[in-house]
Design a protein that fits this description.
The protein has 3 helices and 2 strands, in the order ββααα. It has 77 residues and is mainly alpha-helical. It has one domain. The protein has a two-stranded antiparallel ribbon. It is globular, with a radius of gyration of 15 Å.
């Protein structure tokens, strides 16, 4: 029986997100430089926007959507 390759192994461009601790692939984006998954990187951007301009219900809802998407992929908050 053939074994399927585990693409989330060390040395394969995979790292652990510094925020949610899930393993994610290096896609070459800015999020990789700070070792955050795509969702956590976007959450950080929205949190910076809130710090600068104040929160809105839409921004808070977007953060919740991104957190839920991250949790669905195995992230822990």
């Amino acid at each position: 029986m053939k074994r399927t390759a585990n693409r989330f192994q060390r040395g394969s461009g995979v790292f652990e997100c510094n925020s949610c601790h899930r393993h994610t692939r290096d896609t070459g984006g800015d999020n990789t430089q700070v070792r955050l998954c795509e969702e956590c990187y976007e959450i950080g951007g929205i949190e910076n926007q809130i710090a600068d301009q104040g929160s809105t219900p839409e921004l808070l809802a977007e953060i919740e959507t991104l957190k839920n998407r991250c949790i669905e992929k195995g992230g822990k908050f």
